[in-house]
Amino acid sequence: MNFRSIIYLCATAFLLAGCAPRSPIDAKKTGVSRTESNANRNTSALLTDKDIFGNETTLAVSEEDIQAALEGEAFRVPLNSTVILVQSGSHAPETTIQQELSKYYTVSTFSGIPDRQKPVVCNKTEEGEPVASENMNYMQALRYIAAKGHQKAIIVYQDTLQSGKYDTVTKTTVWSDYKSEKLPDVASLRYLVRFTLVDVATGEWAAWSPVNYEYSILPLQTGKMDIDNTEQQITQLKQKTYAAVVKDLVNRYQ
Q: Is residue 206 part of a domain?
């Protein structure tokens, strides 16, 4: 192979990697931006709605678009389907939820930390001017990976652990994101989870937030909360939540 052939192949590979045509399903879905924050994780590591849904939340939507969406079939993930499980902001989902979901599906996992890349510039215009090509959003790229692996669906969950303290004045529990701080003698915990199911073939999706489970933290015999004891109760709360929400999820979408 001569030097000119090598240069040609390298240029072709660059154009294919940076300027590949997008799927018509996601023709309107473009880049992503980060707006969400989480008290327990690095903000840049979390998935946002735009990572998951593209820019559907900002597109101009007509009444005809809404009616067309209503006519579509309900999203389903039959039992024993092959799925990819993703936890927002984590390299891999927690083992407990993997085990629960594996009772119903064949589960693979993928990182929930999106790879942020700079826009690719392609020198392909009729006028000879460079044009910036936007990268695929996270979900579009993940759908391609899932398609290569012949996966049926992608299940993404976003989770938040919160601690609550009872306000004697308002007679309500005041909740805030848990930051591994020492809890008062009597407090509550709750684990909030939101699921998004995406069909690999069509890009159709369904989002669902189950009823959260609250867990009362009781003091030890010494009257003081122990850090190790708190972590143990957090683990129990997550196990209870995962078992319940996965079962509910399967009943809803099988």
A: yes
